[in-house]
Amino acid sequence: MSLPIGAISSIQSTGATNPVSNPSVGKSLAPPQGKGGDFGSFMKGFIDEANTNVNTAETKVQDLIENKTDNIQDVVMSMAKADLSFRMILEMRNKLMDAYQEIMRMQV
Amino acid sequence: MAGGINFSALDISASGMMAERMRMEVVSSNIANAQSTRGSDGEPYRRQQVVFASAMQDLAGRPNLSSSVGGVQIVDVQGDQSAFPSVFNPGHPDADEKGMVIMPNVKLPNEMVDLISASRSYEANLRAVKSFRQMAEQTLSLLRGSN
């Protein structure tokens, strides 16, 4: 079943991967305050968060290699978070590309 | 903060793993010093114990979403106040005139049990992390191939 570009809410509903249903799902889905909460800033929020996570993970791995810390749990956790955030924006990008191509296939 | 995955389950399990690792350090110290009759203050080594407390904030300092769940933090490493045993050992350098030596109050079987318990708790926390990651990946796979 194709994903109509108007149904942005369906992307929103799969955007949060919170496995436990709790009231925080609504909070983490709320568009970031700032540019009026349109879809562009919504995506930007996710991308920024993924970027932050990846940079944090890189810094922590660097510290571990340089022996500035011996807390491997911290390093592994930040790497897991970076991996999950990145995979999420990857999937969102794939979905958007599919939607775009579906639109382009439409007969004028 | 802007939208993103809610990682509090990961942070809670990470705090559990760090606490168990700290507990293992203390147990190792107890085991290694089970025969130390000279401590820093002239007394024999006193067995150390960790005190855990539940933390109502996550590791980044943000208050947790529901106030009844949170990670764990180590608030104290306290000495066990039980009495030092006296052992008859006249040849020991620290023996008094009656030949009795005051030994640390570390019982090796207790420490081994603590070690096993810490190790199993660590594995349980690790299992929780793996489950969380697996659930997140399965949720993401919904986006893949849903056509």
Cα-to-Cα separation, first versus last residue of chain B: 32 Å
| Strand content bin of chain A | under 5%
Query: Largest interface: which pair?
Result: A-B, 42 and 29 residues
Please tally the β strands of chain A and state the result. Answer: 0
What is the mean predicted local confidence, pLDDT of chain A? 77
Structural class of chain A: mainly alpha
Q: What are the segments of chain B in which pLDDT stays under 50 over at least 5 consecutive residues?
A: none
**Strand arrangement across the biggest beta sheet of chain B:** 1-2
> What oligomeric assembly is this protein in?
heterodimer
Number of helices of chain A: 4
Low-confidence stretches of chain A: 12-27
Strand content of chain B: 15-25%
Class derived from helix and strand content of chain B: alpha+beta
Helix content of chain B: 40-55%
Give the CA-CA distance, first to last residue of chain A. Answer: 21 Å
Annotation field: number of helices of chain B: 2
Biggest sheet layout of chain B: 2 strands, antiparallel
Average pLDDT value of chain B? 86
